[in-house]
Design goal:
By secondary structure, the protein is mostly beta strands. The chain contains 5 helices and 43 strands. It has a domain of about 90 residues: TM1070-like (Hypothetical Protein Tm1070, Chain: A). The longest helix is centred in the middle third of the chain and has 10 residues.
Length: about 500
């Protein structure tokens, strides 16, 4: 571990034309090698006895930017397969006033191979549409198919060449398997499952699973999200986070919570949506990170600041409206340990945790102080401070709950259900509602058991002014809904 400890450092802002900040992605400890990609500098690192740096020279002359922002990595035999996207050479178009943009004509999607024994990087595949404003689908997921001995590639972030693809391990054959855009996925039994996200704004519509034996697709579409939700309410902007398989269920995390169950045979166990850390139109979400199977449970991250806007595109009223939602921080980043029927908050962090891996008895966490930005917020440098920290595995999962404050505005949640806050382990839990008018609030209680169980709901009257509700009687997960819309309301949850 002393070799890895040398890397537990911070990376300050450096040259890397893109929007806002990237992060440290693909963090993977495998056969004595620690791999990760630093974005937006487009620097891939492989660390064993020495530190090897790769600047994506196989894609262009440089200087490069980008690298990976979705943790597209998998390991097979003595190989580390890593993917993502890179601008090479990167072209910053300059600024007009406070606004900036870059040129996408040199943006490539890619998959590389690192040979652990030979300490060698090899480009397997690349793709670009060479357009100033549009780009080919980024590589956001790599899943090794152990039946056919190929790589399955998920692509959803982009304008063309989206869906699920099959890439031979020598890089010679690249075949499209599904036209449905897919951002993230996981092996599930003898299937490879991905989200279905045909509309980026709406988010996940369901799950598509490739039968690795019969080579046919099984698709499960969620037609009624309120009917599939444990608390009986729908969910907005279900943008995809990450997926994992555990307890013979497929878990797909998204903004608003997690869809868990059997998407292949829903008649055996229909997938259920469990609301977790849903704060309305806020970008608090399990975005641009990954989950870990830790101690037989699931270690999941919900990030405080994943995306943001400072300067929206001119003439785009939607971006102007989103700026308020995206730039409001509802709560710190939380690290949650799911061991059904309970979910427990283990730790709180700053803006976001971008990737995690297990190395011996340590859990390595990559962090970033700054979100990805949008609109006209491109700069010639990565604007965040990124780094890697290390925590002891057992100390992490056996730690006491950290104090947590959540602050939600009425205008952010509107008339939708919100919350999904795990209370397990907290001795003190209080809901404080500063209401602008007489109202009622519905509190829903449920767990994340297998299958998940709804404990019912209760109504509490709210008077104009400050209302305090003791939550200590709820020992599982709670979500909330205001009976009447109150844009001026301020809802706070205090846990200790």
């Amino acid at each position: 571990m002393s070799k890895i400890d040398r890397l537990l450092q911070e990376y300050p802002p450096r040259y890397g034309p893109e929007w806002g900040s990237g992060g440290i992605f693909g963090l993977k400890y495998f056969k004595g090698v620690l791999y990760y990609t630093l974005a937006f500098e487009a620097s891939a690192y492989f660390v064993d006895d020495e530190i090897m740096e790769y600047r994506f020279s196989e894609l262009g002359p440089g200087p490069a930017s980008g690298g990976d922002t979705y943790n597209a990595v998998d390991v097979v035999d003595d190989k580390i397969y890593f993917g993502g996207w890179v601008h090479n050479p990167a072209v910053f178009k300059g600024k007009k006033g406070f606004a900036g943009e870059i040129d996408f004509r040199n943006k490539y999607s890619h998959v590389h191979e690192y040979d652990v024994k030979e300490r060698r990087v090899k480009l397997l595949w690349k793709d670009s549409i060479h357009d100033e404003f549009r780009w080919a689908g980024e590589v956001s997921q790599i899943i090794y198919d152990p039946v056919k001995d190929v790589l399955l590639i998920g692509r959803s972030d982009g304008m063309e060449n989206l869906g699920v693809y099959e890439l031979s391990r020598d890089g010679r054959n690249f075949i499209k398997l599904s036209d449905v855009p897919a951002l993230k996925g996981s092996l599930y039994l003898d299937y490879a499952c991905f989200d279905m996200q045909p509309d980026w704004v709406i988010g996940v519509d369901g799950v598509q699973c490739l039968d690795l034996v019969r080579r046919v697709w099984v698709r499960y579409e969620v037609r009624d999200w309120a009917g599939s939700s444990l608390d009986g309410y729908g969910v907005q902007r279900r943008t995809s986070g990450y997926a994992v398989s555990a307890y013979t269920r497929y878990w797909h995390f998204m903004r608003g919570g997690v869809l868990v169950g059997n998407p292949v045979e829903p008649e055996v166990e229909k997938p259920v949506f469990v609301r977790l850390f849903d704060f309305g139109m806020n970008v608090y979400a399990p975005h641009r990170s990954n989950a870990l199977n830790l101690g037989g449970g699931i270690l999941a991250v919900f990030n405080a600041g994943t995306h943001g806007f400072i300067h929206p595109h001119e003439g785009n009223p939607e971006e102007v409206g989103l700026r308020r939602y995206f730039n409001t921080i509802a709560a710190p980043t939380t690290l949650v340990y799911i061991t059904p029927p309970q979910a427990r908050i283990l730790a709180v962090f700053g803006a976001r945790i971008t990737s995690m891996t297990k190395a011996g008895s340590r859990v390595l966490l990559a962090y970033n102080t700054t979100p990805n930005l949008g609109g006209k917020d491109s700069t010639p440098i990565d604007g965040g401070v990124r780094g890697i920290m290390s925590v002891d595995e057992y100390s992490l999962i056996s730690s006491s709950n950290p104090p947590l404050t959540i602050r939600v505005h009425g205008w952010a949640v509107g008339d939708s259900c919100f919350g999904g806050v795990p209370l397990t382990g907290y001795k003190e839990a209080e809901l404080v509602v500063r209401s602008s008018k007489p109202n009622e609030i519905i509190i829903n209680s449920y767990d994340i058991g297998l299958p998940p169980l709804n404990y019912g709901s209760e109504k509490h009257k709210l008077s104009e002014g400050v209302n305090r509700i003791d939550l200590r009687g709820y020992r599982n997960i709670v979500s909330f809904k205001l009976e009447k819309l109150d844009a001026d309301a301020l809802i706070s949850i205090y846990l200790s």
